[in-house]
Design goal:
Number of helices: 6
CATH architecture: Orthogonal Bundle
CATH topology: Arc Repressor Mutant, subunit A
CATH superfamily: Winged helix-like DNA-binding domain superfamily/Winged helix DNA-binding domain
Structural class: mainly alpha
Number of domains: 1
Distance between the termini: 11 Å
Radius of gyration: 12 Å
Helix content: over 70%
Largest sheet: none
CATH class: Mainly Alpha
Order of helices and strands: HHHHHH
């Protein structure tokens, strides 16, 4: 997983970091919600907050941010 990146991003909550890891692993919001026992809308709200806090306008921009933070580790966790 990508825990190394989110330790450097103090603006994200623990839940946001958890959801971020699942999003970057390719899990859809519906599955994330079921796995965490929360509503899909709550997951979508967290995703929106993550995008706003990181300044990302798309999932691909968020992935680029992760890769820029540490290319070696990010490539392993995303690949």
């Amino acid at each position: 997983m990508t825990r190394w990146v989110w330790k450097r991003e103090p603006g994200l909550t623990a839940r946001q970091r958890q959801i971020m890891e699942l999003v970057l692993a390719g899990h859809p919001s519906k599955n994330i919600a079921a796995d965490l026992g929360i509503s899909q809308r709550t997951v979508e709200n967290h995703r929106a907050a993550i995008m706003k806090k990181t300044g990302s306008h798309s999932l691909s921009a968020l992935i680029r941010l992760v890769l820029a933070a540490d290319p070696g580790t990010a490539a392993q966790s995303l690949g």
